[in-house]
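Let us walk through a complete example step by step. Step one is to write down the protein sequence. Step two is to encode the small molecule, S-adenosylmethionine, as a SMILES string so that its atoms and bonds are unambiguous. Step three, shown after the inputs, is the structure prediction itself.
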Amino acid sequence: MTTDERQWLSWICENSDPKELEKKYNTWAETYETDVKKDWSFMPVQIAKVIESILSNKQAVILDAGAGTGLVGEALFQRGYTHLIAADLSDKMLEIAGQKQVYKALQRGNLDDPQLFTSGDQFDVIIAAGVFAYAHAGVSVLNNLFRFLKSGGLFVLTIREDYQPQMQSAFEALPWRLVIQEQYKIYDGQQIMSILGFRKN
Ligand SMILES: C[S@@+](CC[C@H](N)C(=O)[O-])C[C@H]1O[C@@H](n2cnc3c(N)ncnc32)[C@H](O)[C@@H]1O
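Step three: the predicted structure of the complex.
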C-alpha cells in the first residue's frame, strides 16, 4: 500500500476539535474497517491476546474507550469476555459497534467528560486502542479515564512512538505500574506502535 492509499491517516490526525473529529468519524464510519484493515486488523487481536494472558476472569467489566466500530470488543468477545462497554464520540462508529452484538452498553460522549459515567462506575479493565494519538486524545482523557478504573485494575492502550513523548510524563505521574510493553512496526514499517499495559495501585 502506498502513502497515497493511506490518505486517511494524515486526514484523521490533522488538528481538529472534538466536534470536527466526531464529524470526521461519522463520515468515515462506513469504510473505516476496510480502510484500516491492512495496517490495523492485527492490533485488536493482539490486544485481546495480551488481556487473555493476564486476565482469567471472563466476567471482568471492560470499558472499550474510543471503541469505534467495535474491533477490540469483537476480538475480546471471541475470547470469551462478555461484560464489554463501548464509549465513543461518534454515533455512526458506535452504531456499527452495536451491530456486532458484543457490547452490553454503548455510551456516546467525549472521554474527556468527567460525567461520562456516574461516579459509581468502575471498570476492571479500560482499553484505549488507537485513541491516544494526534488530534484525538491526550493527557486530560488519560486522567479522566483513570478515575473510572478500579484499584488493581488494568489500563491497556496503544501509542505511536512519535506521540509518546507528549504523554510520557502523565504516564509516569499516575499511581500505577507498567506491566505490559510490546512494540510493533506499523504502516509498512514506517512507525512503531506500542501496546502499554498499566496496573493501578
Ligand atoms: C482510530 S479509531 C480506533 C477505534 C477502535 N478502538 C479500533 O481499534 O479500531 C479512534 C476512535 O476513538 C474515538 N475518539 C477519539 N477521541 C475521542 C474522545 N476524546 N472521546 C471519545 N471518543 C474518542 C473516535 O471517535 C474513534 O472512533
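Step four is interpretation. The pocket of S-adenosylmethionine is lined by residues 18, 21, 25, 44, 66-68, 71-72, 88-90, 93, 110-112, 129-131, 136-137, 141 (CB under 6 Å).
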